[in-house]
Amino acid sequence: MLSNGRYNTSNTKNKYIKNYSFSHRYNGQQCDVVMTSLIGHLMDIEFPPATKSWKNFPPSQLFEAQIIKDVKGDLIPIAENLRKEARGAKALIIWTDNDREGENIGSEVADVCKQSNARLEVRRARFSVLQAREIQQAWQNLGYLDMRQVAAVDARSELDLRIGAAYTRFQTLKLQRRFSELASQVISFGTCQFPTLGFVVDRWKRVNNFVPEDFWKIDVSVQRDGITAKFNWSRGHLFDQQFALVLYERCVDDPMATVLSVDRRPKSKWAPLPLTTVEMQKVGSRMLRMSSDRIMNVAEALYQQGIISYPRTETDVFADGFDLHTLIRAQTGDDRWGAYAQSLVDGGKFRRPRNGKHDDQAHPPIHPVRMAPNLTGDDKRLFDFITRRFLACCSHDAKGHETVVEIGIAEEVFTAKGLMIIERNYLDVYPFENWNASNIPVFTEGEQFQPTELQMNSGRTTGPSLLTEADLIGLMEKSGIGTDATIHEHIKKLLDREYMNKEGPKGDQFCPSVLGMALIDAYDNMDIDLPLSKPFLRGQLEANLKAICEGRKTKDDVVRECVGMFADAFRVAEAQGGLLEDAVAKYFGHPPDMEMEEEDLEPVRQVRKCPKCGSPMILRSTNGGKKIIGCSGYPHCKEAVFFPEFANSVTALEETCGKCSTPLDPVRMLDFHFPRNSVPPSIPNRYQTCIFCDDELKELFEIHRGPRVGAAQQAPVEAGTNGRQAGRQASIAPAPRNNRRQGERSPSRPPAPRANRRRAHSPAVKNETPPFAPFDGGDGQGRNCLCGIPAVRRTVRKEGNNCGREFYGCSKGQMEDGRCDFFEWADEPPRNAQQPRNAQQSQYQSYGGSPATDQNSPPCYCGEPGVKRTVRKEGNNCGREFYACSKPQSAGDRCNYFQWADEVLSGGGADMARYQQQINNNHGTGDEVKCGCGLIATMKTSNKDNENKGRQFWTCVKSGARCGFFQWVDEAPGGGGPSGGGGGYGGGGGGGAGPGVTCFACGQSGHFATSCPDRGGGGSSSGGSRGGRGGGKARGGGSKRGKGRGKK
């Protein structure tokens, strides 16, 4: 509109934001202009890090804690773009929405821009309609920011943060540890939401407690010329049957009716006022059957398309100079109301709209800007309503004649009314209101007649109905709760948090949940001067914000006053917190659970929005202690990411992922504390990352990055798609079914929210291998791992000399069977290792890629050739090679075999081929001792200070999940000594270590770490040690590993 379509576009660091460059006149000169955009508020306020711990920082201190206002983490690129463009600019023109929030956002933009250009001139453009004429007029009449409106929004934001955070922490911590149904739920509090919930609870109680009463009344009707007139008794009805009967009998005894008066007068039905936001929500929710939140979302979309005016306004007055005829003429081409619009502008039926009582001096009433005949669905329905409302308010009132006849029978008075409509006017275009004609016979004053019917009828009073959305919006508006722009948000939050639900025959009536009912009852029962469930406190706050805008109060005055009121109430609530537990126990139907330890409590923080339903996904613990990221919409939505047991020390950070986050869905980083040796060397024990785009961690956790595909139906890999791109969404394992308490709901008890039902979590199903190319789509350089498949490229993240260095490894999952131990540095040339002949052989290759053949590798305790690895951890042994069990770390039957490679070679000139032949000859002969797992047992020596010190025993070889097998060597069947002879591998002979062998645990020579006396447990001690294994006879049998193992 300003550039007349002639502009250049450039990208910014935020993919949603672009810069538009063009020329335009400013202050009489031709200037270069750069127009850019925002995504809502640029800054956010929060408490400092010292207050983050819910457990350690008292909630009451949040009323006085420091407040920090800074650019939101995910909007830093937008702020950087503003600073860059402002650096060489002379003026900054704010074009945000013309309301309080828009003014505050403009102030934030000015603050950011002045960080790079303190001399920048700041001006304000004010507009309400996205039309060229209005935009050009705003450019020609630039103003300045209204800092009083800015201060009002700052005051409201600070109060909402302090009050909401303090009460939310209080009631969450109070209830989480006493009710398992709420163990992972944040019990939030809002100064607008809580009194809104109070309206719903109050109406529900009135409906539930209503007791109907019988009543009696006298009805009279007269029929003449086929027209019936029904007369209503002036007393209405009576609850005393005997008294009503006496009056009725008097009328029956003297039934002659006398016409006391006949009043004929003109009657008008007023055309509606111009449309405000609240009225649009009220009428729209009632007539269009749309929620207020949906109405506002659709209205915003229509405004952004330039179809309607700004949809957030309190004004119901069109200014005197407002051009209504042009707007009406724009609708004459529409088939639905074009003829009516034509009659307004050319047929003399136009009338200026009535003036309402509200004018916010910011925006005109909501009205159509142009014709939009191609809309569909909710867009069409809402535009239809807005346009018909606008045409109706520009029309004459409907006109008619009303006749009121009053008659008397035995001193009792009865009245009948008739209506004849003369001109429908606005009713012809506005079907959302009705005015029905009713005919009555002609009566003359003083006339007497006998009534056609004279009866006494009975009836019963009916109670109030539950609140509809229109009813609730009306109560909120009347009490000053929220603004025209936020009322729908408060209602939606109460529904999302399941403090209330929609019920009724049409699903349009609000009913509180048991949790919502309990919260309101609890605070109502406390000795608080101004009950939190009533609208007084919030209404006073809204009045104070208006006073700031009008200059009658300052921000500091309002904050101090309101914080004082809510802090006083908070002290009472803390002191009477037992009432909160009592109320929840009453409505949940069971006493509080045994109190959990406070250290078990954790603040629940949203990690991201659920990709399926949009609800928050939160990091929490299952009943079994495992960590998951689960959808808060459970059990209706079962999206979840399950973590393995070794990843149970994890917290969600404030920092968001720059890759996965969007303006509407910030994705939080996670802070892991892994146990030693539980993750590969490339991952440090303390690790901060995003679980949704870290392919290495997703492989380790076996989290899917796409739809699950069975073995018989593999999903094809799209060409050019790498693992990170495919891995933006973690596939979610099915969440467990909830285990709710039994018992039917009674009519007098509100429904329980999903969060109030007890849950029992089942273990996650084991994930299959991701059916696509992993991280980076292979190596891009043709490197294959020892399994014969493309290797994956990774980066060392552990602190040390190699931090940041890239390497290649096996692309299979860390927990997956058959994963090989291939390793090559990316900056070193490929070693061109021979590919294994089969998958079994590939398990015995070394990290470096050279074959660890059967002829060269010493066997582990499982009887299989060991695999050679290299120490990557910084320290004295960094770069040193060692042998270990070739099975994956996650395998349950993996043994704890360990041997330095250089000690094997220096152990005495062993003939490796001869030793391997000996292993092959003895393996499986039945001479070995086996544990309960069916594996060859390992011999250890007791080091405990008792009569068995120095005594040798057999035990399970596993390093974890041992079977508990135990057997003394000297009591084992078959007899024989534990020592071994000389010769064999290692050359050390006997039961000792080979010459030159040094224990890496204590630094002493002559033994290995596994048999080190300083380690406190039984180490391996046998006819031959790992470094010097004897090959002699033991206990009457051939030594399989020179360890003296005989027959079982």
Automatic annotation (TrEMBL):
| Biased composition, class Low complexity, residue ranges | 840-850
Domain CCHC-type positions: 999-1014
- List, in alphabetical order, the GO biological process terms annotated in this UniProt record: DNA recombination; DNA repair; DNA topological change
Keyword hit for Zinc-finger: yes
Q: Where is this region: Disordered?
A: 710-777, 826-856, 1013-1048
Question: What GO MF annotations does this protein's record show?
Answer: DNA binding; DNA topoisomerase type I (single strand cut, ATP-independent) activity; zinc ion binding
Record-linked Pfam families: Topoisom_bac (PF01131), Toprim (PF01751), zf-CCHC (PF00098), Zn_ribbon_GRF (PF06839), Zn_ribbon_Top1 (PF01396)
Q: What EC number(s) are associated with this protein in UniProt?
A: 5.6.2.1
Q: What is this protein called?
A: DNA topoisomerase
Organism expressing this protein natively: Rhizophlyctis rosea
